[in-house]
């Protein structure tokens, strides 16, 4: 971010609930407008829309499992080639990129072979081998690991502190250790699952 040197295609790969979508949103916001320290500038209108998940600027989110079904392949191909209208980059985030059907994969590959200099792609995949080698070879890959028990317990403690539940005398102290540990252990490294179970 500090060098303004963004890969044409980024792949976030890892298990369910480990923050791939959140990372993609933060990374997209960094590309569109960042502060001198490298963090996203959330005051920038497109970045606010990314934060609110309304995506009103030149950042688009597509569901890989819907392309070729609810999303027409021709529309998909056209959407990949649009230049940015308002922002620095036209960013296409493809969730569940491992679910792309062959025709959608071919359309994506064709664009990646000769990408527009102002277009960036962020692919998300839960499957280790779900993305074809032809596409993967054009990606900068970030492998997201499941969170440890301790990391999840600390994250849940942080949530409880923010909501005022950590100091709530109606919640027994045993829960703050054994309860959080049990939730973390049964969440299979997924912070999303841990938060749902904590609720």
Features:
199 residues, alpha/beta, five-stranded parallel β-sheet, 8 helices, 5 strands, 41% helix
Number of strands: 5
Strands of the largest sheet, in order across it? 2-3-4-1-5
**What is the makeup of the main sheet?**
5 strands, parallel
The average pLDDT score comes to 93
Instruction: State the helix count.
Output: 8
- Which geometry do the CA atoms define? globular
Low-confidence stretches: none
- Helical proportion? 40-55%
Question: What layout of secondary structure does this protein have?
Answer:
Elements (H helix, E strand, L loop, with lengths): L8 E5 L6 H13 L12 H7 L7 E5 L9 H9 L8 E6 L6 H12 L5 E7 L7 H4 L3 E4 L5 H15 L9 H13 L5 H8 L1
Parallel strand pairs: 1-4, 1-5, 2-3, 3-4
Helix pairs in contact: 1-2, 3-4, 6-7
What does this structure look like?
This protein is α/β, with parallel strands linked by helices. 41% of the residues lie in helices and 14% in strands. It has helices at residues 20-32, 45-51, 73-81, 102-113, 133-136, 149-163, 173-185, 191-198, and strands spanning 9-13, 59-63, 90-95, 119-125, 140-143. It has a five-stranded parallel β-sheet, with helices on one face. Helix 4 (102-113) links the parallel strand 3 and strand 4 (119-125). Helix 1 packs antiparallel against helix 2 (45-51), helix 3 (73-81) packs parallel to helix 4 and helix 6 (149-163) packs across helix 7 (173-185). The longest helix is centred in the last third of the chain and has 15 residues, at 149-163. The protein is globular and about 60 Å long. The relative contact order is 0.17. The model has no long low-confidence stretch (mean pLDDT 93).
């Amino acid at each position: 971010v500090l060098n303004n040197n963004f890969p044409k295609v980024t792949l976030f790969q890892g298990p369910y609930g480990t923050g791939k979508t959140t990372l993609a949103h933060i990374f997209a916001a960094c590309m569109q407008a960042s502060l001198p320290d490298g963090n996203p500038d959330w005051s920038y209108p497109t970045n606010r829309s990314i934060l609110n998940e309304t995506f009103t600027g030149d950042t688009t989110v597509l569901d890989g499992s819907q392309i070729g079904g609810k999303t027409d392949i021709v529309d998909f191909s056209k959407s990949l080639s649009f230049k940015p209208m308002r922002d620095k980059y036209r960013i296409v985030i493809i969730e569940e990129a491992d679910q792309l059907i062959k025709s959608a994969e071919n359309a994506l590959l064709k664009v990646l072979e000769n990408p527009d200099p102002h277009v960036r792609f962020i692919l998300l995949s839960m499957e280790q081998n779900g993305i074809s080698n032809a596409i993967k070879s054009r990606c900068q890959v970030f492998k997201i690991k499941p969170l440890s028990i301790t990391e999840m317990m600390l994250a849940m403690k942080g949530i409880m502190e923010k909501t005022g539940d950590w100091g709530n005398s109606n919640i027994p102290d045993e829960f703050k250790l054994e309860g959080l540990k049990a939730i973390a252990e049964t969440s299979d490294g997924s912070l999303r699952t841990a938060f749902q179970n904590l609720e």
